Structure formats: structure tokens, C-alpha cells
Amino acid sequence: MDSDVQAFAQVMAILVPSIVVLVATVVVAYRALRGRPAPQQVPPVDDRRLDRLEQSVDAIALEMERVGESQRFLTKLMAERIAGGDSIEQTLGHVNTPH
Questions:
Q1: Which has fewest Cβ within 10 Å: 37, 77, 82, 88?
Q2: Are 86 and 80 in contact (CB under 8 A)?
Q3: CB 66 within 8 A of CB 60
């Protein structure tokens, strides 16, 4: 084999795989950049919606305060009855324990 042909074959053996890798890298990078969704705009603040949300949170807080007051009252009532000598069963009636 001629030395020029052998040198050309060696150059092509390095050049062709290098070009294939370069093209594959460019194609993958292009697809990755093209496939990204555009940044979404933040929707404007809706004052009416925030007002409704604030009212809902206030209503929930009020109801939870009522539940807490009820629980404190019942706990106090039960403690007074038990301190008076009644048993828990007499205070609560039938006690149903889960199995």
C-alpha cells in the first residue's frame, strides 16, 4: 500500500468519527434548547380573589377558636365532675373503646 494512501486512511479514521460526534452533540443540544418551554408570565394579582381568601381564612380561624373554647369548657366540666367523685363512666355515660 502506498504511504500517501495509508496516511489518508489514518486521517479519515480520526476525522470521520470526530465529525460524527460533533454533529451528534450539536443535534442533541439543539433539541434540548428547542424543547424547553418558554418562561411563563406570572398572572396578575386578583384583589377580589385575595379578599375572598382572607375572608375564608378569618372564618376558619373563628370556627377553630369556637372549637377550642368548647373543648376547654368540656374539659373543665369533666374535671369538676370527676373531682366531685363521679367516675369517667358516670360522667361520660357508656365508654366505647375501639378494639
A1: 37
A2: no
A3: no
Nearest residue to 82 via CA among 92, 69, 96, 71: 92
Q: What number of other Cβ atoms are within 10 A of residue 32's Cβ?
A: 9
Are 82 and 88 within 8 A, CB to CB?
A: yes
Q: How far is CA 19 from the centre of its chain?
A: 44
CA angle (51, 53, 58) in 5-degree steps = 95
Residues 50-93 have pLDDT tens digits of 999 999 999 999 999 999 999 999 888 888 887 877 666 666 66
